[in-house]
Amino acid sequence: MSVQVSTPAKRPTGEILFALVFVSVGAAGLLAAGSIPIPPSETGIGPRAFPYIVCTMLVLVGTGIVAQVLRGKVGQAEESEDLDATAKTDWVALAKLVGFVVLHIFLIEPAGWPVAAAVLFSGAAWSLEAKPLWKAVIISVVLALVLQYVFGGLLGVSLPPGPLLEGVPFFHG
User: Fold this and answer.
1) Residue 58: how many CB atoms within 10 A of its CB?
2) What are the contacts of 67-72 at 24+ separation with CB within 8 A?
3) Over the stretch 101-116, which tens digit does the pLDDT of each residue have?
4) pLDDT in tens, 125-143
5) Cβ atoms 100, 123 nearer than 8 A
6) CA–CA dist 146, 137 (Å, integer)
7) Rounded to an integer, what distance in angstroms lies between the CA atom of residue 169 and that of residue 167?
8) Cut 0.70: pTM above it
9) Largest CA distance in the chain
10) 21, 81, 74, 94 alpha-carbon torsion, rounded to 10°
11) CB of 143 closer than 8 Å to CB of 125
């Protein structure tokens, strides 16, 4: 007679943390949405409606994922041919990416959004070893200008154009 000893199931901590990020972002958004000012002339759906809907959905989906994971319904591991399970994390590339995101945040005001975005996109390409780098830089600049035009010029989103594009009216939000 042999006794089988089963090893306890490994708790899917990563999946639970990922779902809790959804819940926390949704909860923070719900709290922040309450401080959106409503103009006195507003008679229909106000500016708080969309953030409330999106953030409520984030909380509900995140809570549902946590409940499913705790019940044992976890996602299947990806079996992709380009996935190397033995590969180590490239901490240098990750640090570069974080550095460029921080640099982007600090560049927005003095240099303008398009310059900050071009630096971010180019830095991400360099961090991820894009070849040839000069093409990635050109694509980064073009993409930043297109995004500035679409969001600032067409949609009216207030993205600071910066000193280089200050005199170009179709880049202003």
Assistant:
1) 20
2) 69/12, 69/15, 69/16, 69/19, 70/16, 72/9
3) 999 999 999 998 899 9
4) 999 999 999 999 999 999 9
5) yes
6) 14
7) 6
8) no
9) 86
10) -20
11) no
